[in-house]
Automatic annotation (TrEMBL):
The lineage of its organism: Archaea, Methanobacteriati, Methanobacteriota, Stenosarchaea group, Halobacteria. It comes from the Archaea. One of its GO terms (cellular component) is proteasome complex. This is Proteasome assembly chaperone family protein. Keywords: Proteasome. Gene3D superfamilies: PAC-like subunit (3.40.50.10900). Residues 231-252 are annotated as: Disordered. The keyword Protein transport does not apply.
Length: 252
């Protein structure tokens, strides 16, 4: 008897009154760059809690912050600037990727105008940390990247994990989207790479102003906060790479 495929659904807890918002994805990945950057954006812009994504494929755990339980996968939104963020306190396991991607398209795509995804890529040297290149799903988004001073990625490659699933859904459903590939230290959560992608890519692309001094001043505290998630993510990736049916990808 075959198992049923995992499902996911969005639980909306508040409405948003925003004009053509940009969705910025901040799910755990290499260097925890996306997670650190989007945490800072959500906090700095004082975005409102919009809802959460529930899936029977997510780990059975209770996330908490500042003494309060909260849902692990959350969406925030605000009007000025018009932004939505997608965040998670847990790595997204491989068997949850498809259902989560489908949930974002089915339940949330009508609420945002375009999407920006963040992925970490291993820096070859210390000088390369924070370097950003972009990949677009359309000519419109490619122009937006170059207008913001972001170089398009010259190499060929693949984007794996949950970010890859989300980008593919945007591409096939004509939702303008871009992926920012950020060079980072793959060994530890990297606040400096998160700071660089905010200042050099997200600020000009989304046209907001984020104070990133906290990422520099509290780098060690941020690393400690993200370290457990980073270890869990690394364990999942090692398990995947050990399976012969999995394809090794360049960016995750």
């Amino acid at each position: 008897m075959s198992q049923e495929a995992p499902t996911a659904h969005f639980e909306r807890v508040s409405d948003i009154d925003a004009e053509s918002p940009t969705l910025i994805e901040g799910l755990p990945g290499l260097g925890m760059v996306a997670s650190i950057a989007v945490d800072q954006i959500t906090s700095q812009l004082d975005l409102d809690y919009h809802g959460n994504i529930q899936s029977d494929a997510l780990p059975p755990l209770a996330a908490f912050n500042e003494g309060r339980i909260r849902d692990a996968v959350r969406v925030y939104a605000g009007r000025e600037p018009s932004v939505m963020t997608l965040q998670s306190d847990v790595p997204i396991p491989p068997n949850a990727i498809q259902s989560l991607s489908e949930c974002v398209y089915r339940d949330l795509a009508d609420e945002f105008d375009r999407a920006i995804f963040l992925v970490g890529a291993q820096a070859e040297s210390e000088d390369q940390i924070g370097a950003v290149s972009g990949v677009a799903t359309s000519d419109e988004m490619a122009s937006a990247l170059t207008d913001a001073g972001i170089s398009l990625a010259e190499e060929s490659g693949a984007i794996g994990g949950v970010t890859g699933g989300l980008v593919v859904d945007c591409y096939h459903n004509d939702i303008p989207a871009a992926v920012l590939i950020v060079r980072c230290d793959p060994r530890l959560p990297d606040p400096s790479a998160a700071q660089a992608v905010i200042e050099n890519a997200l600020e000009p692309l989304v046209e907001f102003d984020i104070d990133t001094k906290e990422l520099e001043e509290q780098a060690e505290k941020i690393r400690e906060q993200k370290q457990q998630i980073a270890r869990q993510l690394q364990q999942m990736q090692q398990q995947q790479e050990g399976e012969p049916t999995q394809t090794r990808t360049m960016f995750q």
